[in-house]
Amino acid sequence: LARAMGRYVDRLGGLYIAAEDVGVDTQFIDWMASETQHVMGGETAARGGDPAPYTARGVVNGIKAGLEFSGKAPALEGVTIAIQGLGALGYNVAKIALNEGANVIGAEINAERQAQVAKELPGVKMVSLDEILFVECDVLCPCALGGTVTSSNLGQLNCKVLCPGANNVLGDPFNDAKSLKDRGVIYCPDF
Predict the structure, then answer these.
(1) Residues 156-183: tens digit of each pLDDT
(2) Is the four-CA dihedral 94, 53, 180, 127 of positive or negative sign?
(3) β-strands 80-84, 139-142: how paired?
(4) CB contact set of 173 (below 8 Å; sequence gap of 6+)
(5) Angle between helices 2-11 and 26-33 (to 10 degrees)
(6) Residues of the chain with pLDDT > 70: what percent?
(7) How far apart are CA 13 and CA 15, in angstroms?
């Protein structure tokens, strides 16, 4: 499977660079690297390190673009950002956001990661997983798994901008995106 994915990525000729993600570890990347040079993050064949800090910068830039599109300044000072999932990506988004003056609310399922966030990013106000999608915030930033915003819960969102770091965050992309637009919520994925 990894080699087949590598061949597919190679067909794109460098328009896409594959890297670690949920379900894609460093070994998978190394297997892909036997088929393409357009991959990074492996341990032997395709070194490059953890992509999360770079992806987080892209998410933060998406947040700023969403804020600007909503008529606000493209800056995080004083902005409240709710982050669902404080794994590699969410942690880095929170770190950048705090450094740029944002108020950060977070939720994380992993107890070890919760302890790390409490120790290293004490400015993050932790809430439960049941609460995070519905807290009052300027920006909701789901960074866990996809499919978290659906027709059954998007009416309860309490944000102006939805800027996910997670892939495929909308349960039904076409209908959910239209519903968000109708509610005045700017949907601004990081790509």
Answers:
(1) 999 999 999 998 999 999 999 999 999 9
(2) negative
(3) parallel
(4) none
(5) 60
(6) 99
(7) 6
